[in-house]
Amino acid sequence: MDQSTGKPTVRYLWDNVIIEHVELSGSIVARSAGLTLIEKDLRNSLKWLRRARSIALDTFQNDEAQTYVAATNREAFDDVKGFL
Q1: Torsion angles phi and psi, residue 18, rounded to 5
Q2: pLDDT (tens digit per residue) in 57-81
Q3: Are residues 59 and 73 in contact, defined by beta-carbon separation less than 8 angstroms?
């Protein structure tokens, strides 16, 4: 931050040496940024599904033949719904 104006500035360092930065633009950069956001969303979704499965397996009986589960632990059931 500039002490006299209060304007924030960004400095990029490499091995404690200030380096120049180049702003990239264009369709490939925009597409890459979009794909990065999609990847992050997919990783978060996978994490939430794994967490919901973990809660469900800890809470409910694991019976392969059973297709319907009556939830007795309402708090755990609400958590599973929230993650899904």
Answers
A1: -70, 130
A2: 777 766 666 667 677 788 888 888 8
A3: yes
Q: Which of 80, 36, 32, 31 is nearest to 59 (CA)?
A: 80
Structure tokens at 3: 């002490």
Helix (H) or strand (E) holding 82: helix 74-83
Question: Does the CA dihedral 16-12-36-38 come out positive or negative?
Answer: positive
Find tokens 């180049």 and name the residue: 22
Nearest C-alpha neighbor of 56 from the set 34, 32, 83: 83
DSSP string, 4-40: TT------EEETTEEE------SHHHHHHHHHHHHHH
User: Residue 59's closest CA among 45, 44, 46, 74?
Assistant: 74
